[in-house]
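Fold this: Penicillin-binding protein, transpeptidase domain protein
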Amino acid sequence: MTMNKPIRNIMFFALIMVIILMANLSIVHVFKEDEYANNPLNRRMFIKAKLQPRGQISAGGIVLAESKQEEENGFYHREYPNQSQQFGIVEGYLSDVYGSNGIESSYNDILSGTANSPKLWWKKLISNEKVVGNVELTLIPSVQQTAYSKMSDAGYEGAVVAIKPSTGEVLAMASTPSYDSAKIADENTAEQAWKQYTEDEGSPLLNHATQDILPPGSTFKVITTAAALASGKYNPSSTLTGESQITLPGTTSTLENYGGQTCAGSHQVSLLTAFQYSCNTAFVQMSIDVGTDELRTAAAAFGVEEQYDLGLPMSKGTLGPIPDNAALGQSSIGQRDVSMSVLQNAVVAATVANGGVRMEPHVVSKVRANDLSILSETKPKELSHDIKPETAETLTQLMRASEQHTSGGSSSLNIASKTGTAEHGEDSRNSNPHAWYIAFAPGEDIAVAVVVKNGGDRGQAATGGSVAAPIGRAVISAVQAANAQGGK
């Protein structure tokens, strides 16, 4: 008996559906097992994770995050035993309710022992037990404490980043206001803490060191000067205007020096004097002469519009559009649409300190297994060497002069720096400016950037020299002290 056509069609359709089902099952089990098994929405995996300890996060030998087992149910919960508010924006948090952030999130597979690492797999095989990674940070606890306390004790909003120029190691990354990782992780305090942090106008859950991009003000003059030096048209002795104000080309708008004063009391000044006294009119004149392309090239060499893979959320800076010379003049002094994070500005200082070589910043030093053997280690990575050594040397000379002016000649520290007082907002000239300070210690492998938002406690009277510079100097001193004690 022959099968009639409708039955054949039904069987053919059923066969096709079986083939599709088998293919889908194969894809799920063979190719997407890890994706589905480790999906945070998978409740079974959530319970499994709670039954197993998690790797530690540490810095300078101090444990910042660890797992503790509960006696009643055998579950493990996350604890943050040391200065969790100071380290919060780096270590992050792990919460049953609010998920994870920071290193807890980006290194989750390492900390939980689920990473596709040959070394982890081999250790699991020979030990026949769970192997997790313990993450060690580059942060120096004493330096982190100084950076955080100098900001938080004064009630400042902003951030501090300290970098080792030769390697890119982040020695401190403080953000204020911050959050307490322990309160978010503890189920008894999580809801109240989360409500407090999300409603705080200071945005404590935001990493102000990497995610907050702001006009850098006169700290950007380091980049403008690098462009001028690279053009071959300028050197420290080159003559520029010192007039109190300058009319932007093609407009009736004027741009003034700070306080409406002539530059160092003179109508004509050298580039050295213009940099030392941070004279806006001189930099407008110089940038227009050098050109937009050269300014963009210098900004790219310093990584202004780049993002770095630190395992932390990061926003990239921008120069914005520069359609004409008026816009170029405004951009040359770090205003108009120019924006940078504190991390990016720390990289600027570090690049000058490193002879023009820009290194990739990183906050994770190494990952160790349970037996303390090294599973992975971050190696220094050179990103560019587009700033010539002689340009970096000249910038160091200029920044030394700037520090002497900023400190009134009273600073006994070996520092080269640049300050910035950045206007912002719709009524920028009447705003409480952001106070900036970027600096390094020549020959000592230390660079730092500081921003105090909205003038701190000084309002419109704030300047980078009066508000941010003392913090930067204190952090440099803390690094020097830590180095003298062996990096502790």
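The domain at 217-363+380-484 is CATH 3.40.710.10 (Beta-lactamase). The two ends are 89 Å apart (CA to CA).
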